[in-house]
Amino acid sequence: NSSSDRESVVPSAEDLKIPKPTGEPGRPGRGGYTLYDALNWSPKAYARFKKYMHDVIDNDLETKLSASAQSPEQFEIVRNKAAGEFPDLQNYVNLWPIDDIILTRLKYMSRCARQ
Known about the structure:
Radius of gyration: 17 Å
Helix content: 40-55%
């Protein structure tokens, strides 16, 4: 029974990151969660993130369109800007807070545009 028979259980960098909660963002009453609660940031830090993201989304994406109808290149530009402005987001698996805030903002804005 040699040591090569045992697999090393060293977590990968991605395993150490904060996972995305189950459910849909912005739907806490329906099995989802609020991004504010999930991040558990100070109110000031969250407000800064939200304002920054709304400004970038409103300027760089087509707010009349859903997330799936966006240009993948523009979507990536917004993700990169956010990751650069808020380095702590690297602690989250696949930068899920960025995607969540983009999706909820576009859902809200495209719904407003249809009314």
